Amino acid sequence: MKKSFWGIFITLLTLLSCRSDDESLQKIDQIFNLYIKDSSGKDLLNPTKVGAYTGVSWNDELAATDIANVNFSRKMLIDSTYYVEYTAGATRQLYDDSDPENKIYRSEIQVSLTKKLSDTQNAPVDIDTLEIYYRMNPSVFEVSKVYYNKVLKFSKTPDEPNVVTIIK
To answer: How far apart are CA 143 and CA 138, in angstroms?
Structure first.
């Protein structure tokens, strides 16, 4: 009985000493959703609609090789609106480390879009550029800005979702 007590006591003491302080954890906020619409608000990512981009591919422009696909997920909302969810995968290049407590990283992705003109014909592939800037400090690693074809399309607002909407 005495050995059981000391075994349980040591186990509990070990578990208590292993707990971490929540304030010391770094918040990761690197997921963003990309919507592509026309000027009237029509969804251009619906893979079955004529006039929409049925083919979408991303290539990492900062990767060590020329062909480095970047993974993303095409998802659909309840109202049948499609979007692309990007979680991670592109090479991150240190962009600015002048402030060691607040570093900026950058990813560059070539976006290839194939528009469906009819049931049998596609338009030539559109090649666009997506630049993602991340801010990292001891408390957070987050998407801070997103540029599409060199135009700022998103700036981080604290505690808001990362939603990028492109009008083409």
So the answer is: 15
